[in-house]
Amino acid sequence: MTAPRRRRAVLGLGISPGVALGPVYYFKNDIGEVPRRELASGEEAAELARLDAAFGEAEQAFRHLRDTNTANLSEHDRRIFDAHLALYEDELLRQSIAARITHQRLNAEAALKDEVDHLVALFQKMDELHRERAADVRDVGNRVQRVLVRRQQDALASGQPVILWARELLPSDTLTLDRNRLLGIVTEVGGEASHVAILARASGIPAVSGVQRFDALAPPGSTVALDGRKGRVWVDPQPRLCGAIERTRTRLVAERRLLQESAPAESLRKSLRKRGISLLLNIENFDNLDPSVLRAADGVGLYRTEFLFMGRSTFPSEEEQLAFYKDVLRHVDGREVTFRTIDVGGDKALPYLVTPREQNPALGWRGIRLTFEWPDLLIPQLRALLRAAAHGPLKILLPMVTTVDEVRRARVLLDELKGDLRRQGLAHGEQVALGAMVEVPVAALAAADLLRDADFVSIGTNDLLQYLFAVDRNNLQVAHLYQPLHPAALRLLRDVIAAGRSAGKPITVCGEMAGELLSTLALFGLGLRRFSMSPVHLPEARLVFRSFSAEDALALVDSVITVDSAAQVGALLRAAVAERCGAAALPFLPR
Ligand code: PEP
Ligand code: MG
User: Fold this and answer.
1) CATH of domain 305-437
2) In what order do the strands lie in the sheet with 207-209?
3) Which of 8, 118, 150, 540 is deepest in the core (most CB within 10 A)?
């Protein structure tokens, strides 16, 4: 008889609201522990074939990587590529791994790992040249291992809806997952403003982060329940708790529906417009977007184009991008749409973009800093956007702007590209607004200067707060210091909003703050009128605008901004919300 499993409750950080119940599924994007088992007799041939196929696939992907980056490779990079290709072709390496499969009766993953570890240890004891070789062997081994592990996952991936566990879910991973099958997400890494949180909220998937070694707590086959607002996860919950989770889920769905239906979205949108308030959406794609949600908004305030570049093995061409942007314009049907140029670097990587290793990626080569130096990437994108502008109104937004010179440089480039398009006789937009993200503190401090050259500004509070508080937005150890309602942060935001007003240019907030009940209210009181958010946040933002006039919000925020802690601001705003909105606010209030 097997011992009954221990039921467990784990406390993490709620990063996307909602509750879920279902079987756990492990998603391994890092190699971590590789599966190890002894082969049954007759299994060797299949394992050898798996190994061969994995080598073949990894080699092909690697060749592709080299071919798409040739123009940007230094001599040193080229040598590394050549050394790696020689390893993929190295018959001896494959034979020694194969020998472990046949003689030691190991599965392909374990045989590969053991041989790589053995070679690395050997090379590391030798001279400098061989030590470099150790890194090459490790790298090639990892790439082949990833193919092996991923294959196993694909086999697992078919079937029923699951609660997915990953140590860290990278933006590109989310593209390979079928979001309709995700009941919930549990991760080890990722704060409230992390990309996994943003994507989970955008897709309405409840998620909890900060759960360590979940694989040890919840073995495969476990049932898991989670509450993404309270940040709780239960392993093999009691039937009573399962019942409660199910009831909460039904209640949340009903409450959201009620809130959505209580004022027809379209008429509410119009009445907000009369008050000068714009509700815009943050979008990565239209796959899971209900068209009625789009109708309830004034357009797309932030289209994160980097997602178009992920989940593929080469840069999309100018023509491919043009077709894509035109399709977006068709979806938004005459409403405004702001495309942000590709924002990679930091925690957003592209497999086919080889960048040097950085000590501090968040402070390094990301956003516009990177794309300025990568014309193969930026120029086709800007040309495609300019050409798409002939088919509908669009704006271009630059990510990670630090100084006004960057806006000027982009403007000069856009003018040159328009000239080229004119000479080539290609239809394009002549008057395309160019804006800057304000997400670097110095850009916030210099917003008035920035606004002399930029046509508009969009405040990226996710990054701005990470840099203001010196808190990595993915690091849960310091998540308590990530404080959107800190009065000093609010005062800085007030100054940026005021700079926009004086310049007579649009200011939007497109970070997560724009749509979270208390911070939406705070921003409204600070004078903001353009809010761009994940679709999941629309109901709570609408609740704010239905319950508070601009004057009330202003008076409230004027009085709370004088205190000295985020906790106090939170408590005061919460009390005001409780008084005005009553029970309607409950599903949206943080724990
Ligand atoms: C931000 O930083 O607030 C933002 C909207 O950009 P992202 O979350 O994509 O970095
Ligand atoms: Mg950002």
Assistant:
1) 3.20.20.60
2) 8-11, 232-235, 223-227, 19-26, 162-166, 182-187, 207-209, 13-16
3) 540
